[in-house]
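Re: [ENG-882] Designed sequences occasionally contain unexpected residues at chain ends

Forwarding the minimal case from QA. Structure tokens:
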């Protein structure tokens, strides 16, 4: 087997790389022994490499070079790859798509039914979107060559911000070059050492990174539990300056949604800012796809910070914050990742704006997406598959409960012409390993029925393949130390 598996995407929590968590179902003790064995040689690295032009007296004071292979995560990736190779599970990551990935995609010159792209409304490649991007390049070039406050401002930036503010029902909006980095820079900037951040336990990695950057105390609450968030804020609030409560409008791993009024109440009672990440909600939730506020029927002003990305329904690249004018003004003048970073590329801003126009004018796309996802959910659930708490709006997980089984099932689906990504430990806890299906408005009913039928057949087959964990452990235990 040439390629193997082991570069998990979507790593949500840094702590899940901790030594106490299971690896491919191995006990914590077995895993620790294996890691120790694989590490033993890499941590002692003699300075035998040619030090180039250094003089002998300089050479004599050299210490062994610090090497990336000494990192725990590096060793763990190696273990996962070796285990996958041993089990005959091919690497499902970094597959090259040779055209526009929508309901179908081309990989290795073969066509696949695709459930691995969050092109929810099927707008990637739409002539209105590509035409706007091309016109922006013709007019402004491929970059704005400066941060916006200095000389990177172009009309498209404000037009996009105003359109996003309108859709979210907010006073104003700020757009940035990246979705992940929007969370990092904004949370890292608004909160500080004396503050507290209370967040859903399954919150996206970008929010955890932002919280870490801020230096604030970070406390997770059980997934979707607004009463727990309320209690935590009650316990912690008086000991901290400012407080931020963070949730997602539509959870990217599980396709479930929060009780928004419950979280608004918790934030209000404890004078906390409420932030809702709409990455997977815009274009998906609410009758017009305007997101969580529309779905919940609440006043958008009840949420302090709406965050979103341009890379999902809006088929571009970038992130944004929508909210009150004073918040946006403050971020535009002070947020380091905005002030000291280049403005969005013209083509990216134009593409997102054009996609937003289509969203506003063609709500039937949202209805079709929701119908297709609901059909997938219903068929999968009736077939006895574990779809967790997905509401069937655009994301449906099929939980296998083991990374080995998820890897095998995704591989079997791929061999039968269906591209779906497995989500494995450490991206999720081992028992939550899954296949994650992203639906789009352009999937046909037939594609969905065929995919679920294939899934059920392959799941039955994979379920009875024994996973000899003892053999995996023996194999890993026999591995030589990493190459020098
Ligand atoms: C909930 C959530 N927030 C933020 C991001 C980051 O967005 P982007 O991929 O556009 O950087 C993602 C990405 O998948 C996400 O799922």
């Amino acid at each position: 087997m040439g390629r193997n598996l082991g570069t998990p995407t979507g790593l949500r929590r840094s702590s899940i790389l901790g030594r106490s968590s299971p690896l491919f179902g191995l006990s914590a003790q077995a895993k620790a022994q294996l890691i120790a064995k694989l590490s033993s040689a890499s941590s002692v690295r003699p300075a035998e490499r040619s030090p180039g032009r250094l003089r002998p007296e300089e050479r004599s004071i050299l210490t062994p070079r610090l090497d990336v292979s000494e990192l725990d995560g590096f060793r763990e990736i190696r273990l996962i790859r070796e285990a996958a190779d041993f089990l005959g599970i091919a690497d499902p990551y970094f597959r090259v798509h040779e055209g526009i990935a929508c309901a179908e995609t081309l990989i290795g010159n073969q066509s696949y039914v695709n459930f691995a792209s969050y092109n929810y409304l099927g707008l990637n490649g739409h002539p209105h979107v590509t035409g706007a991007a091309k016109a922006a390049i013709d007019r402004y070039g491929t970059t704005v060559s400066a941060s916006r406050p200095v000389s990177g401002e172009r009309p498209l930036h404000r037009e996009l911000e105003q359109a996003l503010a309108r859709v979210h029902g907010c006073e104003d909006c700020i757009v940035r070059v990246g979705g992940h980095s929007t969370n990092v820079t904004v949370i890292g900037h608004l909160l500080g050492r004396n503050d507290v951040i209370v967040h859903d336990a399954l919150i996206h990695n970008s929010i955890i990174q932002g919280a870490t950057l801020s230096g604030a105390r970070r406390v997770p609450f059980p997934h979707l539990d607004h009463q727990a968030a309320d209690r935590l804020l009650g316990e912690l609030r008086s000991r901290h300056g400012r407080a931020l409560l963070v949730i997602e409008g539509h959870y990217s791993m599980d396709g479930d949604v929060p009780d928004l009024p419950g979280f608004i109440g918790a934030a209000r009672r404890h004078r906390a800012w409420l932030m809702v990440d709409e990455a997977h909600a815009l274009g998906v939730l609410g009758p017009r796809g305007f997101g969580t506020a529309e779905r919940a029927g609440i006043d958008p002003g009840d949420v302090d910070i709406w965050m979103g990305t341009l890379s999902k329904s809006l088929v571009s690249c970038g992130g944004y914050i929508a909210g009150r004018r004073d918040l946006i003004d403050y971020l535009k003048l002070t947020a380091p990742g905005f002030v000291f970073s280049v403005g969005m590329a013209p083509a990216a801003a134009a593409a997102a704006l054009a996609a937003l126009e289509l969203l506003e004018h063609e709500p039937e796309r949202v209805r079709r997406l929701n119908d297709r996802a609901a059909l997938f959910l219903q068929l999968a659930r009736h077939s006895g598959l574990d779809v967790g708490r997905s509401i069937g709006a655009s994301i449906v997980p099929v939980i296998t409960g083991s990374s080995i089984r998820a890897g095998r099932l995704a591989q079997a689906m791929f061999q039968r012409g269906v591209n779906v990504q497995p989500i494995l430990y450490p991206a999720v806890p081992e028992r939550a390993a899954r296949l994650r299906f992203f639906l789009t408005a352009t999937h046909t009913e037939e594609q969905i029925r065929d995919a679920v039928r294939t899934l059920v057949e392959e799941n039955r087959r994979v379920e009875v393949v024994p996973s000899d964990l003892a053999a995996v452990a023996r194999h890993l235990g026999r591995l030589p130390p990493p190459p020098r």
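QA comment: On inspection the terminal residues look reasonable. Residues 364-382 form the longest helix (19 residues). Proposing we downgrade this to a documentation issue.
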